[in-house]
Amino acid sequence: MAERADALQAALVAARKAQNRDRTLVLSTILAAVKNRQIELSRELTDEDVIEVLRRGIKTRRESVEQYQKGNRTDLAAVEQSQIAVIEEFLPPDADPAEIRAAVRAAIASGAGEMGKVMGQVMPRFKGRADGKVINAIVREELQAK
Description:
The protein is an all-alpha fold. Helices cover about 75% and strands about 0% of the residues. It folds into 2 domains: about 5-90, Hypothetical Protein Yqey, Chain: A, domain1, CATH 1.10.1510; about 95-145, Arc Repressor Mutant, subunit A, CATH 1.10.10. The N and C termini lie far apart (about 45 Å).
C-alpha cells in the first residue's frame, strides 16, 4: 500500500487511542474512499492515487462549506473546515503560484492561445500539487494580459 495510505492508517489508530471522535470520523471516511478507489482500479494504489482521493475529499467538503454558508449554517461550515484541515495534513505542499505562472506563460508562448489548450498543457505538470481552481485563475489572468 502507498506510504500516504499507511500514514492515514497510523493517524487513524492514534486518533482512536486519543478518543478524538472528529478526527477518527474524518480519517475513517477518507480511508474508506481510498479503499473504494483501490477496488475501482483493481490494483495497489500509488501515492498519486491517494493524493487524488484526498483532493477529491477536500473538494467535496469545500463545496459543502459554500452551501452551508449560503444557508447561513456557520456551525456546519466550521465542521467541514476542520475536516479539510485534517485532510490537508496528508497532502504534499502546494506548488508555488510563481512556478504555475511561469508554466502558463511558457504554454502561451509555445502557441497555446486559448483556455483549454493552456490548461491541457499545464494541469498534468501540477497534478496533485495544485488546485485546479488556482491554475484556472492564473491561466485566465495571463490570457487576459496577453
